[in-house]
Structure prediction request, 103 residues.
Amino acid sequence: MEINEQNFEKEVLKSDKPVVVDFSASWCGPCKMIAPAFEKLSNEMKTAKFGKVDVDKNAGLAQQAGVMGIPCIIIFKNGEEVERVVGFQTEQQLRAKLTGVLE
Prediction:
């Protein structure tokens, strides 16, 4: 799911499920490397919604979320940030981090 400044409040802050948001950019090498793992986990972990924010197209949203480096994956529950992972993560690292927070 593509998340932008127009749908962030509805899709993330007011979601009834936890939301895992990947803040990234098309030119970012580590972002491209983490994308397949993020995609795979989004198909496996049905207890949460997964979405991506292009920081170049949504700079205000990235600033509002306090994103200083990418890739930056933020997990929101009940409209509040509960976990943040910055930098490249292997699929196993990402799975462990998400499982710990989502279950």
Notes: The two ends are 21 Å apart (CA to CA).
